[in-house]
Amino acid sequence: MTYISDIISMISDMSGARSEYEVFSDWVHCSAIAIQNASCILHDKVWHDREKDYLQIMSKYEKDHFHNMFAYLCLELEDNIHDALGEIYMQGEMGAKSTGQFFTPFHLSELTASTAFNPKTYNGEVIRLNEPSIGGGGMVLAVAKKMKDAGINYQKKLRVVGQDLDWKGVYMSYVQISLLGIDGIIAQGDTLCDPYRTGYPKERIYRTPRNMGALL
User: How high is the pLDDT of residue 96?
Assistant: First the structure.
């Protein structure tokens, strides 16, 4: 069972005077903040700034709509690893030349993952995956799916560092790899001019619950 169409319908119902693109962007932004802030023990300035952003965005919408969409997303990813947010974005026709963003069909991401990961030669080592233009996280999700299909626990054997210039890509990929329990760090910035490194500004970094030790 898929919940993609249900989420798209809810986005459409919520749009009204706003564009569906704006609703989708606000939803993934709030979802990312909710996951990140819930994983933080210390409530520093970055935590409070994000909390303020969350409350400001949520004030534009009726209560529980975003929460219901998030629940559907969790169900969508529960037994089927794929780029659900990328599909919602494209099937909901939010991608256009004006936004300059299109997401790779997941079957192509799976094909690419097959060239990078071969379970027959896997020796049990931790796989470290660097995705310099992560988008919705489709390539990372495809590797995780290949590992799962081969009986390998990707939650313990996969480490991800992803980066994207567009904040929406940061939020989308962060939400999806967090829900799948992947150990990852997603950073915002230009990978060529300003690649992620030790000491990167905290306000431009999102760490998954598993990376922070919130999931064991």
Answer: 54
pTM of the model as a whole: 0.94
| Cβ neighbours, 10 Å, residue 143 | 25
At residue 58, φ and ψ (nearest 5 deg) are -65, -25
- pLDDT less than 50: residues of the chain: 97
CB-CB contact of 119 with 146 (8 Å): yes
Model pLDDT, residue 85: 96
The pLDDT, as a whole number, for residue 16 is 83
Which single residue is written with the structure tokens 């069909």?
105
Q: Distances from the Cα of 111 to the Cαs of 87, 145, 154, in angstroms?
A: 17, 12, 18
Q: Give the pLDDT of residue 103.
A: 76
Q: Return left, alpha or beta for 189; rule: phi > 0 is left, psi -120 to 50 is alpha, else beta.
A: left
- CB distance 61 to 14 below 8 Å: yes
**Separation of first and last alpha carbons in the chain:** 29
Question: DSSP letters of 112-124?
Answer: HHHHH--GGG--S
Residue-wise pLDDT tens digits, 57-81 = 999 998 788 999 999 999 999 989 9
Q: Which amino acid is at 87?
A: E
Q: Which tokens hold the place of 136?
A: 């919705």
Q: Could you tell me if 88 and 12 are in contact, meaning their C-beta atoms sit under 8 angstroms apart?
A: no
- Which strands make up the sheet holding 127-131, listed edge to edge? 127-131, 158-164, 183-188, 205-207
The answer to whether residues 185 and 207 touch, using CB atoms and an 8 Å cutoff, is yes
Ordered by where they begin, the domains of the chain are 4-95+104-207 (3.40.50)
